[in-house]
Design a protein that fits this description.
seven-stranded mixed β-sheet; 4 domains; Rossmann fold; about 550 residues
Length: about 550
Amino acid sequence: MNDNKLSALYQGVKILHDPIRNKGTAFTEADREALNLTGLLPPRVHSPAEQEQRVLGNIRNKSTDLEKYLYLISLQDRNETLFYRVVMNNIYEMMPLIYTPTVGQACQEFQHIFRRPRGFYVTARDRGNIKKILQNWPHKEAKIIVITDGERILGLGDLGAQGMGIPIGKLSLYTACAGFQPAQCLPVMFDVGTDNEALLNDPLYNGLEQRRMRGEQYDDLLDEFIDAATELFPGVLIQFEDFGNTNAFRLLDKYRNKINCFNDDIQGTAAVVLSGIIGALRINGGKLSEQRLLFLGAGEAGIGTADTFVAALVEEGIPVEKARKQCFFYDTQGLLTSDREYIADHKKRFARKLPPVENFLEAINLIKPTAILGLSGQPGSFPREVIETMAQINKRPIIFALSNPTSKAECTAEDTYRWTKGRAIFASGSPFAPVKLGNKTHVPGQGNNVYIFPGVGLGAIVSGAKHVTDEMFLAAAHSLANQVSEEQLAVGNVYPPLDNIREVCALIACEVAKIVWERGLTDREQPQDILAEIKKHMYQPVYPHYG
């Protein structure tokens, strides 16, 4: 971008306060002369590499991850280009800071660490006025919206308006990993209140001081927002994030064929878990059709994963009803059986005629699963006897402790490898350090949705998709699994290195876009080279030239 003729609005001190256009000490002598910045900055001009060195030094000197998070968010607020340069060049180090697990703590303490507003708030008080206030958003080219109502933030529960950290974090990853322009990203908090008593009694809580609005009023308000957003931002993709089970499934069913949208907790998690299972089978030599999956937790992530696993089996020619019989669920009431007095609609298709079981270990002995998948948000719920029993049943048991943040994981990587004598194939939702047993180092895979949702979103936007389909997530899972090298598998990691995330997202986006064109879900003409077109749209953190 050449802004030689920038208006007075973007000159002098004002441009230093604009995070999109600010270059800090990297403004050249010519920039400073052209933009009336002479005297407003220290005299020495620093290169972006030198600025990055300063940032990394400051981050690494912080004593806690929350302090590092706050430093990075402050950097994002004053210089987005430098923020994304630091994140993209150091993705393995920065990912746990700007997203899970640190973002969970940031959301819990949001009212106490709040410094500067970011994102957009739609509240229950805005009914009838949403289109008007949405026009206050300064960037008119929004392509991707991540929206939450804060009812089920990670495994932490109802955090109300403090859940805004999740859309902000997710959209940072859309830019860092999939190359969305920062100005194309719109984080939205759909604040309809909270049922969290501690927040309602906290004088510093910055959300609505009321209990959650539900039912018809809730639906009407969300309809109004959806209508306004799709009108003001044509073609925008809306990602539903961290809604409670009561709303998540029905909202996805309601909107999925009306607008361009998906639910990351249901569909994104499913794709990344399926990819991990496929990777695990490359290690233990099993077949997808032979797997028996036992889920701890029957919420959005668990049911979504089972549905995607079933879709993968159907793709291999297995009838859907037979495929569903390979999935078993253990929830707060025990093993999911068909003779329960009440079964939520989203669980009914997986209810089985089985004897009642109220102990997870007993369920393992009954079902003899090849894999246990923790999506419960209950820390430590895979104790030693569970892990050791899985190792007795299977030569290479698949044990995925996927609940976020780290404090909610069903088991740790170190315990799992130790209790199975290194035979387990382990993955988690939040990162765990490599574990050395004897002469071998085991590298846990991180089943992070960041491997999936940015690429799916990129493919949908570049192709002009009218809808996002389950088929796209299935394709994303296969693409991700195919990108795991033999070297990664040799150390037990079923996911590609995070350092490769930009290429991972580009290749997933390419597979998604192919489906969009093959299924006629767009009015845009297909380019000759889809991957090249994808990469052409990916943002690079390079300063604009002014002088």
